[in-house]
Write a structure and sequence with these properties.
Length: 93
């Protein structure tokens, strides 16, 4: 349904016929760690996240998975080599 509390005119999964069903009845503004993200929208002078109603809880767990301003470190996939197979390969050469 369309939000009628904070983000007026925006589709919201927490909006019901009785009003906002999210904890507290409204979305929470962004925190300092969210600054610079591409998913921020300003409504009534406050900045809100378009993905999550409570951005502080996303950052408390270890980071926001939808943050566009944070570069996630890619883990290099190091392939383990079986020493027995490696020695057999070397013996064939």
């Amino acid at each position: 349904m369309v939000c009628q509390t904070v983000k007026a005119g925006v589709e919201c999964v927490f909006m019901t016929k009785k009003g906002c069903s999210y904890n507290g009845g409204r979305c929470n503004p962004i925190i300092e760690k969210c600054e610079g993200c591409g998913k921020i929208v300003e409504f009534e002078g406050e900045k809100y996240c378009m993905m999550y109603p409570d951005p502080a809880s996303k950052w408390a767990v270890g980071g926001c998975s939808a943050a566009t301003h944070v570069k996630h470190a890619q883990t290099a996939s190091i392939q383990k080599i079986n020493p027995l197979k490696a020695s057999k390969r070397m013996a064939r050469k």
